[in-house]
Amino acid sequence: ALERTFSIIKPDATERNLTGAINAVIEKAGLRIVAQKRIRMTREQAETFYAVHRERPFFGELVDFMVSGPVVVQVLEGEGAIAKYREVMGATNPANAAEGTIRKLFAKSVGENSVHGSDAPETAAVEIAQFFAGNEIVG
Ligand code: CMP
């Protein structure tokens, strides 16, 4: 089915001017960027976004990192977009990511791993709604 997923190009990637290179991998995989904006996340936005990880030992580090520089938030659309983008991103830890994936190509570490993508349709809907109004998404 035609799906939408939420993507973040993280501060380690924007800092190295990799937005275009990452978008090229996304588009080459057949995903369409139907919404995109460069923002600086507030601490409150980052804490809300990652609330599910609040009890994890790396939560503080994760929030600090996500507010450390600009991010690019995106909505990606395509057939099976959620699973497809997870495939294109590669494993969370770049050490385990397959050849050709965004994280294998660009990520620095499990924390500074260049991109985020939604893990399921329910989370995709919640994540998209946190950052985009309906009229900002143009399919
Ligand atoms: P993301 O897909 O954005 O969702 C949660 C994030 O937590 C994940 O990507 C990683 O960047 C981060 N994360 C997961 N495990 C660790 C870890 N052991 N140390 C630091 N950050 C982590």
TrEMBL record:
Catalytic activity: a 2'-deoxyribonucleoside 5'-diphosphate + ATP = a 2'-deoxyribonucleoside 5'-triphosphate + ADP; a ribonucleoside 5'-diphosphate + ATP = a ribonucleoside 5'-triphosphate + ADP
Top-level division of the source organism's lineage: Bacteria
InterPro entries, alphabetized: NDK-like_dom, NDK-like_dom_sf, Nucleoside_diP_kinase, Nucleoside_diP_kinase_AS
Record keyword Transferase present: yes
Active site as annotated: H116 (pros-phosphohistidine intermediate)
Signal sequence, renumbered to the chain: none
Binding site for ATP: K10, F58, R86, T92, R103, N113
Cofactor entry: Mg(2+)
SUPFAM superfamilies assigned: Nucleoside diphosphate kinase, NDK (SSF54919)
Keyword set includes Ion transport: no
Keyword line: ATP-binding, Cytoplasm, Kinase, Magnesium, Metal-binding, Nucleotide metabolism, Nucleotide-binding, Phosphoprotein, Transferase
GO molecular function: ATP binding; metal ion binding; nucleoside diphosphate kinase activity
Nucleoside diphosphate kinase-like domain sequence ranges: 2-139
A GO cellular-component term linked to this record: cytoplasm
EC number: 2.7.4.6
Entries under Pfam families matching the protein: NDK
GO biological process: CTP biosynthetic process; GTP biosynthetic process; UTP biosynthetic process
Cellular localisation: Cytoplasm
Top-level EC class as recorded in UniProt: transferase
Assembly: Homotetramer.
Task performed by this protein: Major role in the synthesis of nucleoside triphosphates other than ATP. The ATP gamma phosphate is transferred to the NDP beta phosphate via a ping-pong mechanism, using a phosphorylated active-site intermediate.
Database matches in PANTHER family: NUCLEOSIDE DIPHOSPHATE KINASE (PTHR46161), NUCLEOSIDE DIPHOSPHATE KINASE DDB_G0292928-RELATED (PTHR46161:SF3)
Protein name, UniProt field: Nucleoside diphosphate kinase
Organism from which the protein derives: Chelatococcus daeguensis
Gene name of the encoded protein: ndk
